[in-house]
Amino acid sequence: MRADGGRPAVRPSRVEGRHRRPPRRSVTLLRAALAAVAVTAGTVTLVSATGGGAAPVPAAAAAAPPAPVVLTSPVADTVAEPVQVTAPAIGLDTDLVDIGVDAAGALVPPEDYGQAGWFSAGPAPGDVGPAVLAGHVDNKAGPAVFFRLEELTPGDEVLVTRSDGRQVAFTVTEVAAYPKTAFPTTEVYGPTTGAELRLITCGGNFDRSRRSYTDNVVVYARAV
């Protein structure tokens, strides 16, 4: 996805037919509010790894914006940022970098295809709210960091290590694929009552005319 992982949601681009996957922060509520603002500011898209046209992606492809966020707790002075994510079931182990959106409201994935990114305007993993991680699915050279993301299943474990030394364990609750033209923004980015995690990349078929994937894959997980 080039998390949202088309310009998820991320900048991935698997060449159809060349690479096949098997079938199938307490974040201050202020940061959560900023995330909602980022989403409602405009449609977020992910850039195709091979360049060219962009297609709408996870951050705001859906028409309905996230529900309003009400600030009810003091803002923390510092935030423990996530530095690493692992998912043993699919052999995922990568460090994390901060990612954001560009002037057009597109979520900008890491430049390194082997590295995932954390949407730093939103909650940090382990804090209340939906923390968002995004990464590429592949590029012309082959599989990228989130190539096997779609293989995760409910019950699988995802571990996130933070800069304060804390490791937060999440359990996958759902794995879903959505057309980039009908991304469920509220469901993915809306406020939650506890600490949750979203991992986003590209999926579906590769549209050669737009040089982008047709779908976004979203993994939902909850802190345990």
UniProtKB/TrEMBL annotation:
Hydrolase as UniProt keyword: yes
UniProt keyword ATP-binding present: no
SUPFAM superfamilies documented for this protein: Sortase
CDD domains, alphabetized: Sortase_F
GO molecular function: hydrolase activity
Pfam families documented for this protein: Sortase
Keywords on record: Hydrolase
InterPro entries: Sortase, Sortase_dom-sf, Sortase_F
Ranges for region Disordered: 1-24
Protein's name according to its UniProt entry: Class F sortase
